[in-house]
Amino acid sequence: MEYIDLKECILADNAGVADQVRELARSKGFFLWNIMSSPGAGKTTFILSAIERLSKEFKIGVIEGDIESTVDAEKMQRCGVPTVQLRTGGDCHLDAPMIMKALERLPLEELDIVIIENIGNLVCPAEFDLGADLPSMLLSVPEGDDKALKYPLMFSVCKALVVTKIDCAQLFDFNFEALALNTRRLNPDLKIFKVSAKEGAGMDEFCQYLSNEVKEKIKRG
Amino acid sequence: MEYIDLKECILADNAGVADQVRELARSKGFFLWNIMSSPGAGKTTFILSAIERLSKEFKIGVIEGDIESTVDAEKMQRCGVPTVQLRTGGDCHLDAPMIMKALERLPLEELDIVIIENIGNLVCPAEFDLGADLPSMLLSVPEGDDKALKYPLMFSVCKALVVTKIDCAQLFDFNFEALALNTRRLNPDLKIFKVSAKEGAGMDEFCQYLSNEVKEKIKRG
Question: What is the pTM of this model?
Fold first, then answer.
């Protein structure tokens, strides 16, 4: 009997293209930042707030992943950043070949940072390496502090975790220590930030971290 | 060239087993209720609150779907209902064969309602018919009122939509009219409920609806 593990084949193909994306980002000198989360964790609001701060220092482009609709990409366009909309038409994650296609449509020579807003999903996006310098995730306070127990792969593959909507932490009895404890077991190096993109709290600290990461990459060349 | 649409094959196989689940539910006389949502929308809290009310009238069993962890199933056990934990070990949705396996472990002769707590994901679970009498979804207020635009299949396949965490609607500027408008286009028959499982608001109305659905099924035989 021949046994073909289709998932393994798909992930192996994806890994090859992710390496090409990494090489492209190195040669063109841009920093690729992948942002994952559940639906409604506040990715778009967070990205708009980050762009407002980071664009004083860097030129930014955006890749918007959506199953359907272009509402988020339209918001990005309105704030003046070059934006590519990827419509998966059913697929629940972005993969490296999709990112390669999107990068071809962006003015890479001019850009310092390319932000990927992934599909709202804590499962499959974690399996697909996109070649990003910074794989990251948002977790919103209303989702609860126990999500690392339930979606361990996502919390394992990210370098940064941004807890969003902290302005309503009291209302939801969110336990930051429990979150830190649960994530530390999976990923001891994970950097954890707390923000309210709506009110601005914590955004400067996060953007300072990101700015340092981008500059370090530029220095390494 | 041979062309095999793997997705189509998987969904066709699933549909066959979903029909077997439906026939089993008819012959044993139980009502199968599938609950889907994003991670952290409040499925477990909502189910515990519903069981508290419905168990005065019905015998209830629960199938808990999780990628990892048994924290939710333990909560169900503690409230005294027969519970089966399905651990997918990576898969981002439940399918009909998994439900068939779980049903074999439940005392079906004694049960009136079997509740399925699906994996937290607004994408893939919508594609898999589980043979449920009531496919339903929760949408929590903090996720926002625009989710039907982004995850249209989920809002199309459900018969009931329960908006949860309404106690914090003011804080998040949640527009119920926008939600109703967006869902009506996709699914004009969708029943929409508003609840706060934590505070109890709206739970009696929802449970009255569910009780009627169960009794109608029993009457039909």
Answer: 0.88
